[in-house]
Give the backbone structure.
Amino acid sequence: MLLAIVAVALGVRVSYVAIAKAGPCHIRNHSGKIVANQPTKCLQGDELYYNAESNFIANGHGFNQPYGILFEPNAKHRPAADHPPLTVLVLAPVSWLSAHPPLSWAIHEPLRDYAREDRYAMVLLGTVLVGLVGLLGRRVGGETVGLVAAGIAAVSPNLWVNDGLVMSETVTSLVVVGALLCAFAFWDRPNLRRAAALGAVCGLAALARVEFVLFVVLLAVVVPATARATRLDRGAFAVAAISSAVLVMAPWVGFNLARFQDPTFISTNDGITLAGANCAATYSGSGIGLWALGPCTGNLDLPGDESQQSTAFRHRGLEYIKHHESRLPAVVLARVGRTWSLYRPADMIAFNAGEDREKWVTRLGLYAYYPTLLAAIGGAFVLWRRRARGALWVLLTPAMVVTVGAVITYGQTRFRAAAEPSLALLAAVGAVAAVEALRRNRRPATSDAVTP
């Protein structure tokens, strides 16, 4: 049955990409004249970086800024870490395979951007994610909960929309669910190998989205510390998990520290994010809690490498916070409210369109979100009543990270993507418990009705 649900999930995602992202996209020059037709729909926002960088790496150029070389072949390579590396590393083999035989014989890509291939790679990863949600649900609540959770994940617009985009959400969600599965596997049979596996996947989560470095504490420390074992063993498990996480992240962190002028660990994106989230346009009015590129960041052509530019932007954002501390509580509430669609949710319809999400998909996602959220709250209450509080902690950790990320940066429903699988699972727990309760309540009434 789970395989059938996974097949439905694949069909939904393939249909979305095939229809909504079909293109063609007109490429225009500065005068507005069409100079080419891209076979897939235009990439927008962060998609441009993930696609260009994965193609750049596939061509042997490494983690360097791809845009200058694309337009100026003789330009000097500049180190780049605009985003954590995992999504790019996942997509680079797709670009390489698409550019070489035998796949290149069947692929027609005039611009050789392989955006279509990247989208279908995300579709496959998103389909795998649905299967993992089913397995996680089975571990938490049994066979029925697993199937219902997988069913919700299969058709939820808030999940499948990410699988049509060339961005980090699908990869992040996949790694996050993998970390949750590792946490439960460790609790089932605590040992050093499983603790190390948990830490390694938590490290991968940080390399997918930087805020998930919090998993090293919320899962890699908390889960081993609560294992059914002696105090000495729990300490050894925690050390193994943390060490494994550090080992996974260390090569990328060391690479960045060696090639940038200012200290850079996972990404240089924090500077422009802070600058864009902290200015007059995002501290009041209809844009409160959002992010604004032009009004907040001003001139983007700053001197220095990416790390030095990030430092300048970070200083600008922190200075604005320092001088507007009285507005910060309201702004933070707006950020969290926007991320969880509890404050001006309709604003996201237009905002998301700038990130390649069709308006109709955002509307559909809102219609599906609120019933899922209510059912998930019910599911959390059920697990609490059943004293499955360890399981509840694990399932809520993505939501904790998402909320902390919104508090520090800005509000956006896209950031909620990694918590959507947990919402689907908790909603399944709540829905199954509600159905079982109704059945129990009906049995006595039926029995009384037929009693002479």
